[in-house]
Amino acid sequence: MTEAPHAAPARVAVVGSGPAGFYTAEALLKAEPRCDVDLLERLPTPFGLVRYGVAPDHAKLKSVTAVFERIAQLPGFRFFGNVEVGREVMIEQLRGAYDAVVLATGASAERRLDIPGIGLPGCHTATEFVGWYNGHPDHADRTFDLSGRHAVVVGQGNVAIDVARILARPVDELRRTDIADHALAALAESRVADIRIVGRRGPVQAKFTTRELRELGELAGVTARAETDELALGAASLAELEDKTNEVPRRNLEILQGFANRQDTAPRTLGVRFLLTPVRVEGRHRAERLVLKRNRLVGPPFEQRAVPTDDEITLPCDLLVTSIGYRSVPIPGVPFDARTATLPHRNGRVLGDDGVPVPGLYCAGWVKRGPTGVIGTNRACANETVESMLADRDGWPRVSRTDLAAAFGAPVAWADWLRLDHTEKARGGETNRPRVKLTTIEDMLAAAAAS
Amino acid sequence: MPHVVTENCRLCRFTECVAVCPVECFHADAERLYIDPAVCIDCGACIPACPVRAIADSIDLSPEEASWEAVNRERSAALPLITKKEPPLPGADERRAALGY
Question: Given B22, B53, B59, which is nearest A375 (Cβ)?
Answer without folding.
Answer: B22
